[in-house]
Amino acid sequence: xxxxxxxxxxxxxxxxxxxxxxxxxxxxxxxxxxxxxxxxxxxxxxxxxxxxxxxxxxxxxxxxxxxxxxxxxxxxxxxxxxxxxxxxxxxxxxxxxxxxxxxxxxxxxxxxxxxxxxxxxxxxxxxxxxxxxxxxxxxxxxxxxxxxxxxxxxxxxxxxxxxxxxxxxxxxxxxxxxxxxxxxxxxxxxxxxxxxxxxxxxxxxxxxxxxxxxxxxxxxxxxxxxxxxxxxxxxxxxxxxxxxxxxxxxxxxxxxxxxxxxxxxxxxxxxxxxxxxxxxxxxxxxxxxxxxxxxxxxxxxxxxxxxxxxxxxxxxxxxxxxxxxxxxxxxxxxxxxxxxxxxxxxxxxxxxxxxxxxxxxxxxxxxxxxxxxxxxxxxxxxxxxxxxxxxxxxxxxxxxxxxxxxxxxxxxxxxxxxxxxxxxxxxxxxxxxxxxxxxxxxxxxxxxxxxxxxxxxxxxxxxxx
Length: 465
Ligand SMILES: Cc1cc2nc3c(=O)[nH]c(=O)nc-3n(C[C@H](O)[C@H](O)[C@H](O)COP(=O)(O)OP(=O)(O)OC[C@H]3O[C@@H](n4cnc5c(N)ncnc54)[C@H](O)[C@@H]3O)c2cc1C
Prior knowledge:
Elements: H1 7-17, E1 22-23, H2 26-29, E2 46-49, H3 53-66, E3 70-73, E4 90-93, E5 100-104, E6 109-112, H4 118-126, E7 130-131, H5 144-150, H6 157-160, E8 167-173, E9 179-183, H7 195-199, E10 208-215, E11 217-218, E12 222-230, H8 233-245, E13 252-257, H9 258-268, E14 279-287, H10 290-306, E15 313-315, H11 318-338, E16 342-348, H12 354-367, E17 371-377, E18 382-388, H13 394-414, H14 433-436, H15 439-452
Parallel strand pairs: 2-4, 3-4
Antiparallel strand pairs: 1-2, 5-6, 6-10, 7-11, 8-9, 8-10, 12-14, 12-15, 13-14, 13-17, 16-18, 17-18
Helix pairs in contact: 1-3, 8-12, 9-11, 12-13
Bound molecules: flavin-adenine dinucleotide.
Flavin-adenine dinucleotide binds near residues 36, 94 and 145.
């Protein structure tokens, strides 16, 4: 279906982006063969680092003419293989388009290029007393373009929502090479279909985003973090749905079970507080009045104790807060350290269904005699489910992963959930799409894709089974 990248194509790419931005050697292309999915790799035939929308458009026109696939890539920190060039061809790296173009204090907007690391946006706007809430846990590694393509979430979604709730304007290049500008510094806009919302979460299959306008909020003045250890795993899960039912809206409610905390300890070689507890909740509250945030955190603390929490550790200053969050931010690295071969899911259910979900997943682990460790954004119903290979023989593991995955998905769907809350379908979940969506929906999505990209040159092998 696709042409190989021959020497004349490499030469044409050099003409577009300059010699230094075209990589062809196996060693220099190695970092572009994978994202953060364990065990998934594919070789690009060439890597192109673009610096403008015009260059992206020229690369697309060339790729269309030659029928060569193009895989967009942000920082390569995705967890569904979206940036992996499974059909070879061109990897289009956005890493050099990494400028924060403007912080507009009058309109509370920031304009950025897609390759900016998300944490750099946080720091730049916070220095001006402003706030960009979406905070994927890999925020110091992943790019804002990747966040938009994945529809990324993060711990603060409980109160502030996810990436899609902050994007007001996009410049994007269509696979045809046309450059479009959608929206602007506009809080409201209902002019035609919302292509912005269509491109968010499209996993680099419809267009390449080259400029982004994000809405900002005033930076909350007060933040309190609570670390709450439980001796009973289910009591921690029950607390999550009870906090929400009592109409208290924390910024985050993160859930970590004992094995994930112990894995972080082993990685960092230092003891975590209450490391022997069956589970921890990490709860953050914020606002502008010290009194109101104190009052809410006391109510939440009492509720946790009513549910049998062993203690409520309170952190009011940055240093202590960073200490409490260290374990949470290191979990994925720690689980990779624990069992280099592992399988991660990202299911999402209505928030009140967190207790039966966690209970059901434990049952699946027992039935398959495999370690399954859960952690994640329990406050918004999004749980990361990690199946660890440990010393399971390869042949049993090969059968176990799809069987356990399907059981986890069926349980999630039964509870009114979906198979991915923030990591996307990508290359790794595409065969399960028909479990979650009916035929008619998948067909409409296929037709939308064909309208943008009739020859399927953009990120083939993703989303669709
Ligand atoms: C330790 C760890 C913790 C994480 N925590 C979270 C979390 O809390 N919440 C969450 O949502 N995710 C989380 N993730 C996943 C990851 O951070 C997000 O998916 C992130 O959005 C990926 O960004 P990236 O720049 O690395 O994208 P990449 O991996 O490079 O690409 C991801 C997808 O975006 C496409 N793409 C990239 N740039 C563009 C562009 N400019 N235009 C069009 N398409 C593009 C690619 O083709 C690909 O399909 C975590 C990952 C890790 C490793």
